[in-house]
Design goal:
InterPro entries: AB_hydrolase_fold, Hydrolase_4, KH_dom-like_a/b, OsmC/Ohr_fam, OsmC/Ohrsf. By secondary structure, the chain is an alpha/beta fold. It is built from eleven helices and 15 strands.
């Protein structure tokens, strides 16, 4: 994914810090906002990994630090659950102005609870996913332990959470007491809700997911995160969450379908005028893109045409070498074939001073990992020149072109 720093202003005038995660090989088809867990930040591993997985599925994802956390301005002691909801609404306003109004909202833990409330206030949101969210925000009070009484009696107290000290005021608890995710979920007005929760969650029990699910109206879905812990530390679990959310959301938000190209030929290329150089390819039964670098006016959403040709030579060489080695009973654990394309003067060039004397040149370097002797390596180098694509590039070829009516 491509990730860049962004900032925006919340309703109190504080500057909030975020990152915009974008897909590598296309413009985002939709934008999403990620609400991080209680006292976490935009750079927490679960936030990064879920966002990365969503970006890989074509989403642009805004993840940001709530007021007073991470790199965002503001005094955390003056924030509460309601201010988190307001920050999410401000993030949606920023996206609508600078990019495109978000259609998907994703929240983790208390951020999931905040997302349920914010979804009703953000008109463009069509789908909402929560991860390990409490059914009532007051649930986080138990993390304060004995300090909860101190907050009530003295008006504030410093609480150590995950090795960091945070100051909480009584207004924080008072605000939590007023909130109910069950009531908020019942008011989503047709916005699709996905509830994801682990039965092994020791921080927020799965009973919370049940309460939210029963309170919400359809369309609603539940996916178990069996084997996962509350904070989604495991990268595989976080990536799974992102991909499931993307797949589920496709049912409820407008995601353009992959353009289908029909042809009797092995390869088809299709390019619309507004796409400049970004060309859709159908290679057999597989779709890909070709493009040019940004410096040449492209968007760099795919390899260049010559990189595709080089890729054909490299992959064919690797396949040919492994196939030959297997037939001979030689063990090659891995073959790497590095190929570059350019125009160079031919060896023993008679007219090297003339620029037009340069010819198309593919530079190929091969790395063999295995138990091979010098004689075997020498033979494999000869076999590399016998790969079908190598032969094609060296032979006289013809291209027969006609117009399809």
């Amino acid at each position: 994914m491509k990730s860049s720093k962004i900032t925006f202003t919340n309703h109190n005038g504080a500057t909030l810090s975020g990152r915009m995660d974008l897909p590598l090989e296309q413009d985002p088809h939709n934008f999403a906002i990620f609400a991080h867990c209680f006292t976490c930040t935009k750079d927490f591993s679960a936030v990064r990994n879920v966002s990365k997985a969503l970006a890989s599925q074509g989403f642009g994802v805004l993840r940001f630090d709530f007021t007073g956390l991470g790199d965002s301005e503001g005094d955390f002691a003056d924030t509460n659950f309601s201010s988190n909801v307001d920050d999410l609404v401000s993030a949606a306003t920023f996206l609508a102005k600078e990019y495109k109004a978000p259609s998907l909202l994703v929240g983790h833990s208390l951020g999931g609870a905040a997302a349920i409330f914010a979804a009703s206030e953000i008109e463009s949101i069509q789908a909402l996913a929560t991860i390990g969210a409490p059914s009532n925000p007051i649930h986080v009070k138990k993390q304060f332990g004995e300090k909860a009484e101190t907050i009530v009696e003295d008006g504030q107290a410093t609480v150590s959470l995950a090795g960091r000290d945070f100051t909480f005021k009584k207004q924080f608890l008072d605000d939590l007491e007023k909130q109910s995710c069950e009531q908020a979920a019942a008011k989503l007005d047709g916005k699709a809700l996905l509830i994801m929760h682990s039965p092994q969650d020791a921080t927020v029990s799965i009973k919370n997911a049940e309460e939210i699910y029963h309170a919400a109206k359809h369309p609603k879905s539940f996916v178990t995160l069996d084997g996962s812990e509350h904070l989604l530390i495991d990268k595989k679990n976080a990536a799974y969450v992102g991909k499931v959310v993307a797949g589920w959301a496709a049912r409820y938000i407008d995601i353009p379908l992959q353009e289908e190209i029909k042809s009797s030929h092995q390869v088809v290329a299709s390019l619309d005028d507004e796409d400049t150089f970004t060309t859709l390819l159908k290679l057999g039964n597989h779709y890909s893109k070709a493009d040019e670098p940004v410096r040449l006016g492209g968007d760099d959403y795919g390899p260049t045409p010559y990189e595709l040709v080089s890729g054909g030579l490299a992959s064919c060489t690797a396949m040919t070498l492994q196939m030959y080695a297997r037939r001979k009973g030689w063990k090659i654990r891995n073959v790497e074939v590095h190929v570059s394309y350019g125009k160079k003067h031919a060896i023993d060039c008679d007219d090297c001073e003339n620029e037009n004397a340069k010819i198309d040149t593919f530079t190929r370097e091969i790395k063999l990992i295995g138990d091979l002797n010098e004689k075997q390596v020498k033979r494999l180098l000869q076999i590399a020149d016998k790969c079908p694509v190598h032969k094609t590039l060296h032979s006289e070829t013809q291209i027969i072109t006609s117009i399809i009516e």
